[in-house]
Amino acid sequence: MQIQHYLIMLFDTISLELFSHTDSWKENGDVLLHDRFFMLRDFKFARKDFLESNQPYRLQEGRIVIVKRGSARYSFNLEEFQFEAGDVVVFMADTLIEKQGHSEDFEVDAISFDFKSSSLPDLGEGLFSLHLNEHSRLVVSRYIDLMWDMAHEQPFPEDNLHLLLNSLLLYINSQPGHISSIRPVGHRDDMLKRFITLVSQHATHARNIPFYADKLCLAPHYLSALVKEISGKTVMQWINQVAVKEIKVWLAYSDETAAQIAYRLNFPSPSSLTKFFKREVGMTPSEYRSARKQIHHTTSTTSPS
User: Fold this and answer.
1) Helices 285-301 + 270-281 axis angle, to 10
2) Which of 31, 47, 56, 121 has the largest count of CB atoms under 10 Å?
3) Are 90 and 123 in contact (CB under 8 A)?
C-alpha cells in the first residue's frame, strides 16, 4: 500500500489526499474516484479543513473548478488569485498550489484531468479564470451533470469522458471575459510573470540568477533590479520560496530521507538542505515532518463541526 501511495504522490498530492482519506472527504460533499481521475460535487470546504494553510501541494493533473458559493484565495505557482462565486477556473498540470484562505461558505464542483491526447485544446500553461454569466453557468452545469452521471457507468467510459472534457474546455475558452492573470498586463509585468513561471518550473535544480537571466535574454543585474522593483522581492527570494515549497511537499508526502530529498532537489549535501530549510522555515526538515504528521493526525481524528 505504501508503494501505491508513493506512486500516486509522484502524480498529484491532492489526488493522494483524496484516495487516502476518501471517507473523510465525503463528509464535505460528493466524491467520485477512478484511478487518478476524480470529480467533486457540492464540495463544502467549511466542513473540514481540506487543504492545510501554508502547506504546498504539487499537482500533476489539470483541474476545472467551478466556484458555486463563497470566495477563496489561493496561490498558484507563486501568484495569488482571488476566486468568487460564478467563477470557473482552469489550471494546467505541474502546478504548485497553496491555500491562503476561504470564506465559510466556499463550495465548488471540480474535475481533474490527466487524459493523454493531442486533441485536448491548447490552453497554454498555468491558470486562467472566467466569471460566467447566467447562461454560461447553466451550460457548464449541464456539462458537469452529464459527466458525473457518465463517470458512474461500468466499464468506466474514459473515451466518452475525454470527449466531454474536451468540449467543455473549448466552450470555456470561447467565452468572453477570459483572463489569464489578475496582474496588469504590460511589458514589465509580463516579464515578471515569465520569470515567476520559469522559477516555478526550474527552482528545484537551478538556483542562481544567471540561469534565469539567460532564459529571459536579460543581463543578470537588470533582471535583479527589475524583479525587485516590480515585486518587492529579490530574485533569490523567489527562487528560495519555490525550493522551500518543494521540500515541504516531499517531506509531507514521501518517506524519503533528507539525503534523498537533497539529491532529488540538487542540493550539494543533506546538511546544506537542512541548513537552508532551517534558515527559511525556522525548523529542521525532521522537525517540520514531525509537526506536519501531528497536525494531520489531529485533523483526521477530529469530527467536523
Assistant:
1) 60
2) 56
3) yes
Nearest-angstrom CA–CA distance, 71 and 85: 6
- In 10 A of CB 260, how many CB atoms? 13
What element of type H or E holds 41?
strand 37-44
* pTM for this prediction: 0.69
Q: What are phi and psi of 120, to 5 degrees?
A: -65, 140
The residue among 201, 197, 200, 142 whose CA lies nearest residue 168 is: 142
Query: Helices H, strands E: what count in the chain?
Result: 12, 10
Does residue 151 sit in helix, strand or coil?
helix
CB 246 within 8 A of CB 264: no
Per-residue pLDDT of the chain (305 residues; tens, 9 = 90+): 333 333 334 446 677 777 777 787 788 888 888 876 889 999 887 665 667 776 777 777 788 999 999 998 888 777 778 888 999 988 777 777 888 888 889 999 999 877 554 455 555 556 678 888 999 999 999 999 999 999 999 999 988 998 898 899 889 888 876 554 444 445 677 788 788 888 888 888 889 999 999 999 999 999 999 999 888 889 999 999 889 988 998 898 888 899 999 998 999 999 999 999 999 999 999 999 988 877 655 555 554 43
